[in-house]
Amino acid sequence: MAYFLFIDESGQDRKESPYEVLAGVSILDSDLWDMIKELHDAEISHFGRRYSEGARELKAKAILKRKTFSRAIGNIEILPNEVPGLAKAILDDGVGNGSRKNLKALSLAKIAYVTDVLSICASYDCRIFASMVSPNAPNTAGGGLRKDYGYLFERFFYYLEDQSTEQGYPQHGVVVFDELDKSKSHILIDQSHKYFKDTAIGRHRSSLIIPEPFFVHSDLTTGIQIADLVAYCLSWAFRLKGMDAPARDELLPYIEQIRKLRHRALRSMQGKDDFEIWSIAYIDDLRTMSEK
What we know:
Elements: E1 2-10, E2 20-28, H1 32-47, H2 60-63, H3 66-72, H4 83-92, H5 100-123, E3 127-133, H6 147-167, E4 172-178, H7 182-198, H8 200-205, E5 214-216, H9 222-237, H10 252-259, E6 264-269, E7 272-278, E8 280-283
Parallel strand pairs: 1-4, 3-8, 4-5
Antiparallel strand pairs: 1-2, 2-3, 6-7
């Protein structure tokens, strides 16, 4: 068996987002198609049609922006069974059906849909992995794999190790990235190859993680869309020790769902036999030890 790790980013421009996030969602290969079908059904259930039909993407920065939540609490009465029809109408014809009632219904549908996405992830025992980087983190001057990618691969490897122990035979991981522009993709591939081939820890982790990452278009790949939603929610609302940026309260229910999807690994480290390593890590310095 193999686990796909679909990875996306949020806040890489270091402008509006409080934290830079590299997030991944792990899905077992044999569950992937059934899960995708359930997610498509959830779209139809909430929006009356596929929201992502055509050129429209289920991007977190569009469906989870603050305006979505302010519109959802408007004083216009809408019955729950009216929401899909009203949402479909505005998606089909935004000009002809752009009333406040339609806008509220679409907002309600977006909020409920994301809740369902995370619930479906839980039902398939998916796991969330992420590296969260401070916007003030000093950058590395080296040409190797960045620390946030290294941390993500480390946590994913621990999960695969634990799954291998539980199943009694090796469980392998396949890494799938949202496609960057070609030059950036080539840099990431080269850095990944060097990490998995030229470093001792990378060679060890290549025993379970396939060193050749795949690149896909986010608008065509459901797993990447989930990772995008998770990355956005983490950046704006998930906080660990040392993270002092204010969290958006309206996203906290999603954070509670995401917390339950983390993986907790126990390893011998720092003088402890049961040192806890959670699958979401915070990084406030991207420099290597030698650079510090």
